[in-house]
Give the backbone structure.
Amino acid sequence: MCLAIPGKVVKITEKTCVVDIMGAEREASTELLDGVKVGDYVLVHAGCAIQKMDEQEALDTIRMFEEMKDIAHE
Amino acid sequence: MNNLIDEFRNSETARKMVRILSEYKGRPVNLMEVCGTHTMSIFRFGIRDVLPESIRLLSGPGCPVCVTPNYFIDAAIELAKMDDVIITTFGDMMRVPGNGSSLLEQKASGKDIRIVYSPLDSLKIAANNPDKKVVFLSVGFETTTPVSALTVIKAKEEGINNFYLLSANKTMPEVLKTLCLDPEVNIDGFIYPGHVSVITGTAMYDEIAEKYGMPGVIAGFEPLDILHAIIRLVSNIMSGRVLSENGYKRAVNPEGNPVALARLYEVFEPCDARWRGIGLIPGSGLKMRDAYADYDAWKAFDIKVLDHSDPKGCLCGEVLKGKRTPKECKLFNTICTPENPVGACMVSSEGTCAAYYKYDMKR
C-alpha cells in the first residue's frame, strides 16, 4: 500500500500539479509538500505528491552501488 | 531522471551485488523486510532465489491490510448495510474476510461500495451525493495517513458534512520495538520501509539501533536498492556496527516531510491499537482528535466492537512476526487461497501468503 511512483512535474496550479509518470499524465495534490516547481521529480502516493526526489543523491547512490566491493567479515 | 530507473535495475551491477552476496561466509543471519511493498519487490525480482542459504529474508508486519483486524471489516460491512451510506476504500480491502462476509460479497449483493485511488476522491463522491453519508476506510501507515488527514481537513474547509473516516491507521515505531523485544522473534536486522521513511524521517531508526540494539537500512524499491540494503546490513551485522543507515537518500531525508507530518498530527493522535495476529500494542495506532469527531465514523455511527478474535487456525500473526513461513500454516493452499482467503495475508497483493502463493509455489 505504501507504493509511491516518481514522476516529473509538468504543470502547477494552486493546490495541484500535473505529473508525468513514464509518459502518463496524472494530477496530484501539492497540499502535503511545500515548494513544488515545474521540472521537479516528485513521489506520488494516493493522489498526493509526498516528497521531492533528489537527482544528485540518485546519481551518488548509483555510483556507490557500482563501487561496492564486498561484505565485511568481522 | 526517469531514465535512472533503468540504472537502479542495471543487470551488470545486480550481478556484481549477487556475486558479493554469494561469497558471504559468515554465520546465518535473519533480515526482516518490514514493508509489504518490499516483500512484493523481493519476490518480483527473484531476490530470495539469489541469496545464499545463510542470508534469510523474513517478511514483517508492514502490509496495512494484513494487520487490520477482522472487527474493522465487520464494522465496515455494518456501515455498508445502511441504505444511506456509501463506502469508499482502497481495492486491497475488498476481499478481506470479516467474521461473516467481505466487502466484495456485500458489493455483489448491491451495497454501494466504491474503490478509490485516493481518499481525496471520496470528497467528490460526498459532494455529488449530498443525501448520502460517505465513509472512507482509512487504513495505512505513515505514508498514507497524511492523505487521509488532508481529506478530513479539506472536508472541513469545504463544508462537506457528509464525509467520515473509519480509521484503523497505524504507525511503525512501536511494532518494530515489539519485534525487537519478543524473545521468540529471531531477527538480526531490519530493511526499513522507504516510503514510510519519506514521511517520518530517520530519527526513529536511530532510537531502535541505540536503545534496542537492532541495526537497519532504509531501502528503496528497485532491485539494486534491495540488494545494496542486504549487503550493507549483513556487513554491519558481521562488523558489530549497530546503526541505522539510509540507502534511499534520493527520497528520504533525516527530517522527513514536515508538512505531511503536521497534517497527520493535526487530525490524528496516538492511541493503542490492535494488530491482526499480534494483539494490542500500546501507542501503535492513530485515532482522530476530538476536534474532528464529527468526521470520525466510529463516533458518528456509534460503532461498538465486541469481537476481537482472529480466524481460527490462521497463522497470520506468526507470519507477520517472521516466526513462521506461510507454508507452515495448515490452511495455506488448502482452504486458504487467493480466490478463497481466510487470513488477510492471503488477500492483499502485498501479503506474505499471497506473495508465497504467487511466486513460491513451485519450490
Observations:
- The first helix of chain A runs from residue 55 to 66.
